[in-house]
Every structure is written in structure tokens, then in C-alpha cells.
Amino acid sequence: MDKLREIETFVAVVEAKSFAAAARNLALTPAIIGRRISQIEARLGGLLLSRSTRKLELTPQGEDYLNHCKEVLRRLDTAERLVSDGRKYATGHLIVSAPAAFGRRHVAPHLPGFMAENPDVRISLNLSEHVTDLVRDGYEIAIRLGPVIDTSLVQLRLATSRAVLCAAPAYLKEHGVPQVPGDLAHHNCLAFNEYGGQPRGWFFLVDGRVVPFKPSGRMSCNDGEVLTQWLCDGQGIAWRSHWEVADELSTGRLVSVLDEHMPASYDVTAVYPVQPHLPAKVGLFIDWLRATYARPGYWEAR
Q: What is the CATH number of the domain that holds 193?
């Protein structure tokens, strides 16, 4: 109970932007507010708020803690509302945005199951490679891959994925297996096109450092599924996300290479705007995706 009060106090201070204003909102004294914040920082072993005479600012540790605190309060709020109104299912229209390829493979196939458990929910799923502005475009939740720059959004990790460099066995038999990233200069590298036709760069770990690599080959495309088909046809070698080629890797149609040189994994994240009370449909949808992605073996063959 003390930790819950501390969490509520910390969130109130951040939202009010001062100890005094938070004290007024919570009907407490500034001294009590300050003591609770100090207790949290002492327990965590670091500063959450950078204090000055003019303003309070979140430290990087404070930003991480704030996201977790909001999630705790959100889950508590959802649990209380579900129990208090006697609902087993969420209701309303849920508007979701997801990256096109990821959405086709890892969101859309699971919607029938979610809808079966929540018959009072309608879902609109928008698939796009563009990063959407949730507030401006009217989305309640979005799926993001990799780092999320917008700190105004609540960010919840759904899963992790990683990059793989892969090719068809026939291609590797004909052209050889690269042993180090530098060997790729002698391979037909199939690149993903960014806007304007520029190839998206690749990255490798070399001697403990992340080193960029500009792929060069005779074929490129702005569609990941086309690249995967070219790979399976033995047309070259490409840097892909594991979730894009897991099926092909598990069946042996593709083989990964240079595994020891691939960068660290990245997060698959759900984001939504900060709001006083998160609708149950959003919270339950996030929980559904998390449970789905956490199933043993899910990412090994999709």
C-alpha cells in the first residue's frame, strides 16, 4: 500500500510539474510529497527528478519509472472497473495502427480470437509503413518496432525480435558463405528501399562496435515480402527481421549467416496516448497480444 501511494504521488508530481501543486491536488503537505519522492529515490538508488528553483525535470531513470508507474495504475484502474461494473468483456470501437508487414503476420491473424473473447468490441486495423500520429489521426493504440522517439506516449513492450542475415542454401552453395561482414562486398545484397529509392543500411557487430554497412546489389525493393521471395528464389542475401523469415528459417528454405555479428535484439512495443483512464478494450488488447507472443515457440515458426 505504501508503494502504491508513492507511485500515485510520483505521477501526480510529474503531471503537476511541482511539489506544491501536487500537494494541493492530493490534499497533502509539500513536505509529505517531498518525503515520498525521496523514499522512492532511496529505494531505487537514483534520482528520478532533477530539481531546480524554476522547474522539475525527469531524469532518464525517471522517464522509465514513470512509464511503469502509469502502467501499474492503468492495470489497477482496469481491474477495478471490470469488477465494479460486472463486465467480462470490453466494449466499443478499437482503432489500431501497425506496420504493414508485421500487422499482416502478427496482428491480423490473432484478431478473430480476440474478437471471440470480446464480442462487444469492433476493431479497425490500419496497416502502414508510415509512423502515425495517434492523437491527430485518431488511433487508440499503435504497434511500433524498435526505439520509440515520442516520449509523450506510454510505451509497453510486447515482445522482442532480432535481425538476421540470410540466404537460400542454393545461393550459398554457389557463391559461398560469408565469414565476416566484409565478405558481403562479393555478394548480391538485396536491399530494402527507403523513401526516394535509397537502400536501408545494415549494421553489424565488429570487434564490439556497431559498424554500418551499405548494401549493394542488382535488386532492391520497398516490400519485405518481395525480398523474402527473392531470397527463397536464390537471388541474393539480405538483412531481415527474424519475424519476417521465421517460417522460411524453420523449414530450411533460408539459412542464417554471420549470426555472431548481428546487433542486439529490439523491442516490439505498444504505444498509446497518456490519458486519465485507459479504456478496457485497449488494455485487454495489449494483454492479448502479450500472451500470444509469449507462447512457447511462437517466434520460432511463424
A: 3.40.190.10
